[in-house]
């Protein structure tokens, strides 16, 4: 695939995840070789990637994720104005998200990108916070793009972070030193075409020279 296609069709795939087909370790490492070419603050490369494929660990993480999803859903989730085009998409997105929450423990591989350092402490500046996340999120997204190029799809999720400490203990992640930033639910696709998504118009988000 060309770069334009990859960049415009890398969707959050949930209902078309193939839960039965394993993703080879070699393929995941190949994607990671691409991912770590991403920029990182001061060239620190303080990233760590935890791959989870063992059923018992996925079962525990999946249950924590499901609990977090239903707590989020019970709170009302996201809301949009009546004339907002995202309002029409919301039921479909919510249905897809719940489907993944109920089956998270079945995904072939969970990928948890981590970064050295923590910002959940008093006195952390916006600059420091942006620098921390800006040093891992580009690599994590590059991982998804590289996977898409190789026929593997996924969904970027963060709801497990409600139980970040519990997941850290389960996987041996040094909680005080490393921040978990996402949970990528990965697997091959069951098929079908991926297209660019409908987005809000640019004229509502673009500012030239001033707000």
What features would you describe in this structure?
The protein has one domain (3-75, 88-190): NADH Oxidase (3-Layer(aba) Sandwich), CATH 3.40.109.10. The protein is built from seven helices and five strands. It is globular and about 45 Å long. Strands 1, 2, 3, 4 and 5 form a five-stranded antiparallel beta sheet that branches. By secondary structure, the protein is of the alpha+beta class. Helix 2 packs across helix 6 and helix 3 (55-74) runs antiparallel to helix 4. The mean pLDDT is 94.
Helix content: 40-55%
Terminal Cα span: 37 Å
Q: Beta fraction of the residues?
A: 5-15%
- What is CATH's topology name? NADH Oxidase
Total count of domains: 1
What sort of overall outline do the alpha carbons produce when their principal axes are compared? globular
Return the average pLDDT rounded to an integer: 94
Keywords:
7 helices; 14% strand; 5 strands; NADH Oxidase; 211 residues
Short description:
This protein has 211 residues and is of the alpha+beta class. The chain is 41% helix and 14% strand. Helix 2 (25-35) packs across helix 6 (137-149).
């Amino acid at each position: 695939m060309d770069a334009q296609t990859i960049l415009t069709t890398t969707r959050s795939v949930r209902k078309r995840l193939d839960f039965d087909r394993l993703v080879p370790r070699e393929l995941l490492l190949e994607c990671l070789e691409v991912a770590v070419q991403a920029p990182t603050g001061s060239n620190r490369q303080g990233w760590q990637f935890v791959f989870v494929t063992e059923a018992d660990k996925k079962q525990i993480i999946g249950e924590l994720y499901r609990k977090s999803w239903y707590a989020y859903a019970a709170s009302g989730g996201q809301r949009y104005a009546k004339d907002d085009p995202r309002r029409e998409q919301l039921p479909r997105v919510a249905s897809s998200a719940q489907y993944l929450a109920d089956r998270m423990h079945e995904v072939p591989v969970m990928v948890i990108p981590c970064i050295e350092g923590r910002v959940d402490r008093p006195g952390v500046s916006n600059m420091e916070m942006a620098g921390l996340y800006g040093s891992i999120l580009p690599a994590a997204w590059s991982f998804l793009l590289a996977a898409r190029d190789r026929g593997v799809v996924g969904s970027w999720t963060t709801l497990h972070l409600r139980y970040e400490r519990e997941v850290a203990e389960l996987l041996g992640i040094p909680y005080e030193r490393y921040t978990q930033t996402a949970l990528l639910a990965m697997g091959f696709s069951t098929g079908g075409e991926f297209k660019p998504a409908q987005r809000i118009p640019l004229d509502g988000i673009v500012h030239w020279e001033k707000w």
